[in-house]
Amino acid sequence: MSARPRIAVTPWRRHLPTYLGERTLLDTLDPAYTDRVAVAGGLPLVVPRPPRDAAAEVAREILDLADGLLLTGGGDVVPKTYGAADEGANSDMDVDADAWEIALLRAASERELPTLAICRGAQLMACAFGGALAQRLPETARHRDPGTLTAPEILAERHPVHLVSGSRLAKLFGNEISVNTIHHHAIADAGTLTVSATAAGGLIEGVEHDGWPAIGVQWHPEKMREDEQRRLFERLVADAHARSART
Predict the structure, then answer these.
(1) What is the DSSP string of 165-216?
(2) pTM (predicted TM-score)
(3) Contacts of 193 (CB under 8 A, 6+ apart)
(4) Are 102 and 56 in contact (CB under 8 A)?
């Protein structure tokens, strides 16, 4: 048996060109996610979603085998997932992905399974616990529109985030951190989660759950070269290792 804690990692389903057609349905994942888990000492296990009718049952069975959960980025959350109407600023939505990942989050909560949720993952984490999203960023957030930037500009863009004293994020990074800006939706209501990071105008950038070691961040740490961003993955793996030792 591997001594590395097993971290379940979610991919995103996309249509991409292959020899089988211009729109071949594939599960995809930026290898930066699994690389960061592996370098931190974890064993990344990619877990594609099952058919929707089996989502809740399979989520429980998968997390019975895992020591931690990493929810990655992807398309926009379907507004009806959080009880809202579509305001027309959404793209790349997948209601089955929403149901699957929310099932994973709730199963993780039941097991107090260490969890890191990134970008879309953080948004779904809020939705899973009674929260809601903003389908457009407020001007007070002072975020540049990714749609107006080139890929290198998007990756280089940074903005400051204030971390709430005493939070898990503050214990990792201190009072403030500079992060990237690769989102056009945001958490408007954290539900029963605790807000642990905010950007300009009070925009929610980080959430945590008081009942189990779960952190959600709106930024993409796996796409940042700053060494400090590795701490999120190191914390996930350390918490997973401690849980594995206990159980």
Answers:
(1) TTSHHHHHH-SEEEE----S-EEEE-TTSEEEEE-GGG-EEEEEETTTTEEE
(2) 0.94
(3) 125, 126, 129, 131, 207, 208, 209, 216
(4) no
Residue recorded with tokens 């809601």: 132
**Per-residue pLDDT reduced to its tens digit, 28-71:** 999 999 999 999 999 999 999 999 899 889 999 999 999 999 99
Residue 108, both tokens: 């993780």
Q: Within a 10 A sphere around the Cβ of 78, how many other Cβ atoms?
A: 18
Per the document, the length of the chain is 247
The amino acid sitting at 68 is G
Domains and CATH numbers, the chain: 6-246 (3.40.50.880)
Active site residues: 119, 220, 222
Least confident residue range of 33-42, 87-96, 124-133: 87-96
